[in-house]
């Protein structure tokens, strides 16, 4: 808004804006590295279980009745919801990858919404949800299989209320279709470059974001964004980039001051925690961050109104001068 419509927006607070998430500016793996780290930071066993689960899902899916087993294990909704006669039958995913995509989406959103207190932003979630997921994954008995652990963990995300009867892989509870569309036309991020990464070291390796972009379009955007950082410095002003380093989007955000009035506030929160309503559980750094933001915005507004007032008097003086000089002449 600020960059495109400077006459409308006096300034901007960009809370986790991955404006640098383009090839040549940040490595394409950054996003998933951050997601991975959020889980690693809980426990390595949690991270490793998730990491191993991708192969386990592929392996199961290749078995004869593998997809059916996966459907049962993950309680996927029956294909014919209203046909009561087949109580025990669950809808099979078309391929095991659909299940992986569904899981991956949850891990992504968990990384974004790893707030210190319970929220209902994307899904109803407990505070520190990644910690809760990992507790579930880690606390199963020794004989529990990898995929059973994953089911326990993922239920924190998809079924925290306990009110979900079955899971629908095609459900789009976050309305992400809209984001994907916007991403395709406005911010073709280079997450998709991961497709070429053969060495899959992090948790999310096998499950890749498919943005559905068209190659030529992507190329054009990458070229156009190459100079984004220097352009930002040259023609931008009055933007706060606030970042929470738990959020995978922070990898492509502006993490350092670009100029005197394009400043970065970088803390350890999740996705735009600073824009959420204040709560009693807000950590000190968050209070501080909000105070800094308010101070900067106040400064911009004061300048703006002062400049406007200056203009107002300048115009008044001009009109007054006109009457003073020309009126007597014309009389
Ligand atoms: C959701 O949680 C409730 C309560 O724990 C459980 O009874 C139900 O089976 C769960 N749903 C799924 C799909 O796992």
TrEMBL record:
State the InterPro entries in the record.
Answer: Peptidase_S28, Ser_carbopepase_S28_SKS
Picking any one GO molecular function of the record gives: peptidase activity
Q: What highest taxon heads this organism's lineage?
A: Eukaryota
A Pfam family hit: Peptidase_S28
- The answer to whether UniProt assigns keyword Transport to this entry is no
As given in the record, the signal peptide range reads 1-21
Q: Which GO terms describe its biological process?
A: proteolysis
What keywords does the record list, in alphabetical order? Answer: Glycoprotein, Hydrolase, Protease, Signal
Query: What is this protein called in UniProt?
Result: Uncharacterized protein
Lineage from the top down?
Eukaryota, Viridiplantae, Streptophyta, Embryophyta, Tracheophyta
């Amino acid at each position: 808004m600020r960059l495109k419509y400077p006459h409308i927006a006096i300034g901007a607070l960009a809370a986790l804006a991955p404006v640098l998430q383009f090839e040549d500016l940040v490595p394409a793996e950054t996003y998933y590295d951050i997601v991975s780290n959020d889980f690693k930071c809980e426990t390595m066993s949690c991270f490793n279980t998730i990491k191993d689960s991708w192969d386990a899902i592929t392996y199961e899916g290749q078995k004869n009745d593998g997809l059916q087993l996966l459907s049962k294990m993950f309680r996927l909704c029956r294909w014919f919801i209203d046909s009561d006669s087949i109580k025990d039958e669950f809808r099979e995913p078309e391929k095991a990858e659909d299940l992986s995509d569904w899981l991956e989406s949850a891990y992504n959103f968990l990384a974004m919404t790893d707030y210190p207190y319970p929220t209902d932003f994307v899904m109803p979630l407990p505070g520190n949800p990644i910690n809760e997921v990992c507790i579930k994954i880690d606390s199963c008995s020794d004989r529990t299989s990898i995929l059973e652990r994953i089911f326990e963990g993922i239920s924190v995300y998809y079924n925290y209320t306990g009110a979900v009867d079955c899971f629908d892989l095609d459900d789009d509870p976050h309305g992400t279709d809209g984001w994907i569309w916007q991403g395709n036309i406005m911010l073709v991020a280079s997450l998709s470059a991961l497709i070429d990464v053969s060495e899959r070291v992090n948790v999310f390796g096998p499950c890749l974001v498919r943005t559905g972009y068209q190659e030529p379009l992507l190329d054009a955007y990458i070229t156009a964004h190459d100079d984004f950082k220097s352009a930002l410095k040259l023609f931008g002003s009055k933007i706060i980039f606030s970042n929470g380093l738990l959020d995978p989007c922070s990898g492509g955000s502006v993490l350092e001051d670009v100029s005197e009035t394009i400043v970065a506030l970088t803390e350890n929160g999740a996705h735009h925690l600073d824009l959420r309503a204040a709560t009693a559980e807000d950590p000190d750094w968050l209070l501080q961050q909000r105070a800094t933001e308010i101070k900067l915005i106040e400064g911009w507004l004061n300048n703006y109104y002062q400049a406007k007032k200056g203009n107002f008097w300048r115009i008044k003086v001009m009109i007054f001068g006109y009457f003073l000089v020309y009126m007597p002449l014309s009389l």
